[in-house]
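Appendix B, record 7
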Amino acid sequence: MQKNLLLGSIATSLALVALVSPVLADAASDGLAKAKANLAVYTNKPVFTAPGAPFDAKACAAGKKMMSIPNNSGNPFLKGIIDRMKAAGKDLGLEVVEGQNQGTPAEWVQQVELATRDKYSIIDLISGIDPGSIEPSLQAAKDAGVKVMTSHFYDPSFEQNKVVSSSLTIGFGEIGKILADWATVATDGNPQIAIVVSRDVPPTIPLIENFQKELAAVAPNGKIVQEINVGVTEWGTKIQPGVQAALQANPDINVVIPIYDSMSQFVVPAIRLAGKTGAVKVATFNGTPFVLDYIQSGEVDMDIGESLDWIAYATVDGHLRDACGLPTPTALNVPFYIFDKNNAKEAGTPAAFDTGYGDAYKSGFRKLWGIE
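Structure tokens (predicted):
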């Protein structure tokens, strides 16, 4: 009797597996097709779209100064944007200065106080400083007549802090979806992922949330094997050992995703030391030149690029519109572009910050500003 029950149970289980397996296979196949279709959008050359009506940008910029404060001056991506804002501002008579710091709130406050004391027109918090973390000093700046703005920081889903005059948002949630789609396609529907994040940077949250949602939608067999959370000020000391340990402890990991590509300088050596170069794929976001060089050398597989010069032009444009009381864009409107082994050389050898995206945005903005 017991033997018959056991055999019946086994038969039932096998029948269920037979029914479920095709369903899972169909879901995986459908998800893979969907991920491929989603990625196709980001393989086309970016197109310039005017963020607003033409205006006399030189007249608007006259006598104005802007301090752009990154979350850490050691970040080459942010430093590259600020350097290009200086150049774009110079053409208009807008003085742009970097609020240099090493990533501590005390230094951010010092730069805000300096901008307030020296009567800057604009404080630009670029990509990483949560206005709420230094709100008293920003409120003092606002009370003194300085306009506080953010760029490349808020996701469109975020609520803007009350001290902020305007925000040029970026789709961090969109980036999360692209990374999940790519990981799915690159592993034929079976991504086993180690993801490197900095949860102390607020835009990380919508990026990760959308990554997780998209992964569940397109890769039913995939999962995040390990999340490695490292604060911005600790990238240089904790990312490499963290990634190396994850790879050694979890040999099934086949994708490492450092969500901001400046992390890659610590991820690539970790993969090399773990003996996994070529066996583990790497995908990331920002388009920093040294990471595009990694693609050309085969050490990184994909980087979602965005032209730093385009970001600089868009930031100067949006902040000047706000400073002069004009309708202000709510987003940077800088398109994303996927670089991989097929097109990384378009960025130059060695890669340059602004190569590979075309230059339609330059004449586009200059015509809007009335200087071309």
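Remarks on this record: The CA atoms of residues 176 and 210 lie 5 Å apart. The mean pLDDT is 93.
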